[in-house]
Description:
Elements: H1 4-13, H2 17-22, E1 37-48, E2 51-59, E3 69-75, E4 80-84, E5 99-107, E6 110-120, E7 133-142, E8 152-155, E9 164-176, E10 179-188, E11 193-200, E12 207-212, E13 221-230, E14 233-241, E15 257-264, E16 267-270, E17 274-275, E18 283-289, E19 295-300, E20 319-320, E21 327-332, E22 335-340, E23 348-355, E24 361-364, E25 369-375, E26 382-387, E27 390-394, E28 398-403, E29 412-416, E30 422-428, E31 431-436, E32 441-446, E33 454-460, E34 464-471, E35 475-476
Parallel strand pairs: 1-20, 4-35
Antiparallel strand pairs: 1-2, 2-3, 3-4, 5-6, 6-7, 7-8, 9-10, 10-11, 11-12, 13-14, 14-15, 15-16, 15-17, 18-19, 19-21, 21-22, 23-34, 24-33, 25-30, 25-34, 26-27, 26-33, 27-28, 28-29, 30-31, 31-32
This protein binds beta-D-fructofuranose (FRU).
Amino acid sequence: MYTKEEYVKDCQIHNGMWRVVNSDFNRLNYHLMAPTGWLNDPNGLVEKNGINHIYFQYTPFDAGWGIKSWGHYTTKDWITYKEEEPFVFADNRLDRDGAYSGSAIVKDGVIHYFYTGNVKLLDGNYDYVLNGREQNTIHLMSDDGYHFTDKALVLANSDYPDDMTTHVRDPKISKDGENYVMVLGARSVEGKGCALVYHSADLSHWHYVTRIQTSEKFGFMWECPDLFKLNNQLVLSVSPQGLEKEETRYQNVFQSGYFLVDENHGDYAVGKFEEFDYGFDFYAVQTFEDESGRRILMAWMGLPMESEYQEDPTVKYNWRHALTMPRELVFQNGAVYQRPLKEFEKLRKNEFQTQISEFKQWQTENCSFELNASFSNPTESFSLRLRDDVVLTFDGSMLSLKMGESGFGRTQRNIALDKVSQLQVFSDTTSLEIFINGGRYTMTSRVFSDSLKQTISFDTKADGRLTIYDLKKFNIE
Ligand code: FRU
């Protein structure tokens, strides 16, 4: 258990932790980070009355994997943020080992939250896969996103199909006509990942309808499912675990991507899986529709503990991990494109423009910049240096992000591509988010250079337009 009272006590005990965390030059300028301690998945993304609520998996005073609460940031404009008190604590018999990931939906002016109460039983010899774990689907209601009513159990292990293991979690709700639809990530007894589908008319009573799965096994577990429509196309986003590495795909310990889905009277047929991102640090996507109708994605700019990289240097400063920039999703040319939110243009200052052919180099003092390149010859090779030992290269058939020591074990990631017509690179002190060909592909990674004074250079015979902006810091109140 981890209650609000313990949190308040810990705030006093660890009062100095903020000072240590904030003295770390690896702190990001325009990304939401663990205020102290550990952050993972974005949760409960929702906008109500012009306020966007961004909750996240959080262990406030431990930069490792502990009992999860929901941390909380709010923003009205995506540029100025407020760090709020944590929202949900694991303070109950139903969620005592973690208030795990979940989501939010607004109905008649009330925000409804659903999340997984993780409980590990201690009264026997359990393997915690087939037995020994409760995965309680819990429902909360809130008028304002800051205070909520009692926790109500809406689904327990006995409500999941008989062939499920005890890994069933991460409820995400959408509305389809009169029905509310919940998807839950699951692992079956035969070791096949899938998404369970439940329906409800009132958000309180749920019944099982079907499961969404591939015909051949595709990973042993699907975490964080999210079913949504993008320009009338149904999309299922999931974070599958256990995919075999292919030449350029599925390179990380776990993946995050989407299927296009055809629904026919409650039968779901999925197409081929597309990864959302080809970088090193990207997982546990969640999307939501904001009040202006945009579908916005955020992800954890990190990976679970099993990650093959070295420990990030931030852990010595008592914090670890951040969220990606919010990205608007668009469905075009049969694929989901990701675009940085327009609001981020407000962070721009000091514009620098040139022809690529005339570009020598550009110096940054703090690695916070946006670089836009549009190529007149998209098949020409190039090499774009983003840090001393980090380079993005294109050879006419492969786009590669190569990292040296500053990758802390992150080495190389590739996308098989025959054209690069456009690049938009968002660099923060210790992160890179690269949007390729209008957001058709992205590469997201953490990077920890010794110095934030870096020289950006381009080596190419290609020409085109290059624009670089310094980027300002977020305001966090
Ligand atoms: C994904 C995940 C979720 C779970 C949460 C626990 O990263 O494992 O499946 O709810 O993190 O923090």
